[in-house]
Amino acid sequence: MIVEVVGGADERPEVRVVDTDDLTRLHLALGQVTDEEADQALRDAGLGRMQDADTGVLDAAALRAAAEPDADVADWAQRWDGMVESARGRGWVSDDGAFLQVHVESAAGA
Q1: Which domain of life is it from (predicted)?
Q2: CA-to-CA distance for 95 and 77, rounded, in angstroms?
Q3: Do residues 87 and 100 make contact, with C-beta atoms less than 8 angstroms apart?
Q4: What is the pLDDT of residues 48-68, one digit of tens each?
Q5: What's the predicted TM-score (pTM) here?
Q6: N or C: which end of the chain has fewer CB within 10 A?
């Protein structure tokens, strides 16, 4: 699953959740936006925030709510739980389980 922050209409970045059925990976992909623009777009979308240039923090419940309606696999909920548990084992889940820490991939030249 990828959370994208890309340039949108009227120069306002948009947040999209794509590849929702691929729960073997989760990262934040930034298009031609600054870290500050990405942070504001994530906050405005209610999905999370930028921690720094390399790390994002996503609201787990909001991400699930955004992704699950687009899921095409019958066992998506179980795959989601498995992804969260895998992230927890790596220390990428907050103590209360509310937030997921993710790697940021920026577009070349951004």
Answers
A1: Bacteria
A2: 21
A3: yes
A4: 999 999 999 999 999 999 999
A5: 0.90
A6: C
